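Worked problem 6 (solution included).
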Amino acid sequence: MNLKYYLGKIKEGKPINFTRFISLLPSAYSKQKRELFDATLQSPQKWLISCSPEVLDKLEQLAKKPINRLEATVMGDSHRVSVSSGFLLVYHQGLNDNRPDVVYLEQENYLQGFEPKKRLLIVENEENFFLPTLMLKLAGLFTKQTIDLSNTDIVLGSGLRATSKLALVWYRQYSHILCAFDYDLAGLKMYKTLKTHIDDRVNFLQPQDYKQYGAYFKMKPKSHQQLIDFIVMAEQLGFLELSETVKKQRKFMEQEMLLMEMDDE
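Solution. The predicted structure is:
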């Protein structure tokens, strides 16, 4: 049940679960629950609630779903609605210098000035993204395929940008998608999100043998639970060797460490 449901019951003079109702309120209202609401117990967990018309009107406005981010801002929380447009930075074969191209994203469309290749490499970290030649070489090493700008585009996909609804629309033009993410819980979650919302064309970029990469796992988990969650998710995804490596090292690996491998060659 959402806030709108409970407000409707209050207006109808019907008892509600007051504890659940309070949990749905913004903190400014929940902290003043005794001052703002009169509650009379009708039966176990059911309370008859009354409040001033002004408070009820304010809460009804908050409960109304904003139609866009601007309206959400006026209502006091722009994050209730996703942005209506955005951008991605992309390296592709048609570039004349080291500057990546910009793709403009809209809700169900996008604008780009190049013909996409069949394969896309999504790179999470900026340091790696701005070394596209090394990342393509790494992808080729891990997949045992020839991967370069003649057959692959590279996009910067960091944080929430990588899994945004706007980006998901753009990704679907590619037949093969490689995810070069950190080897940590956030990286696995990002990969799982893309796999769920797109399909099996999405693959996690990782070495075929982790033996030589154990020393690169240097990032300590923020908590023991985070470590456990990673191991469980890695096993669920079928990444058994990655799971075993993290069990042994008790640490994660940031993808920047792989640049050391490429620089050494």
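Discussion: The longest strand covers residues 85-91.
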